[in-house]
Amino acid sequence: MSPRKAPALHGTDLSLREHLIATATRLIAERGTTGLTVRTIAREAGVADGVLYNHFADKEELLALAVRAHVRTVGRHLGELPTPGHGSVRDNLRAHIVYGVAFHKAVLPAFAGLIGQPKVLDAFTASGAPGEDWRDQLRGYLLAEVELGRLAADASVDAAVAMIVGVCHETVLTGLLYDASAPHGLSDEFVDDLVGTVLNGIGQARP
């Protein structure tokens, strides 16, 4: 005889562990991680506080898995990234930059409450699949274009990645820290300038 299903799971196909992760993921998407407690997660999930510790080593493990689920959900909603060898490199870089800003705008608030929780951040990093994070996908895209001969063989891929990711971070963080009411985006003109600088450099003036 199979065990009775917990009342909180009626009408779902989830295990209790999956239900707790899904509940924490929803709360993170709605409220961020600041002040998110075991009691809040348990109440939203419709279970007793102590139940969490039957399925996770600690609160940090649950939070890390929930943040990872939130990040993956955001990525799915943003759609597919460009495929190496298809379209122009310039347009593909534009698409990566637009994606990167939207991605950071959606996920960075979730990390605000985790700055002082290195255990959660370490567990979050460990929970990812190799190459799944957007920075890794951007790097993989550029390396693939080098292999295809559409970028120079000696292209400074890591420097280009750092430049693009840095712009995405700075754009979103500036808005979050200094002017939350301002739109956290980049103008089309700036994106074009950034792509041009990545591809062509800033150049030295001739004497």
From TrEMBL:
The cross-references to Pfam families, in alphabetical order and at most eight, read: TetR_N
Molecular function as annotated in GO: DNA-binding transcription factor activity; transcription cis-regulatory region binding
The UniProt keyword set, sorted, is: DNA-binding, Transcription, Transcription regulation
Which InterPro entries does the record cross-reference, listed alphabetically? Homeodomain-like_sf, HTH-type_TetR-like_transc_reg, HTH_TetR, Tet_transcr_reg_TetR-rel_C_sf
**Which top-level group of life is the source organism from?**
Bacteria
Q: Enumerate the spans annotated as HTH tetR-type domain.
A: 14-74
Known DNA-binding region: 37-56
The protein depicted here goes by the name AcrR family transcriptional regulator
Name the source organism.
Nonomuraea rubra
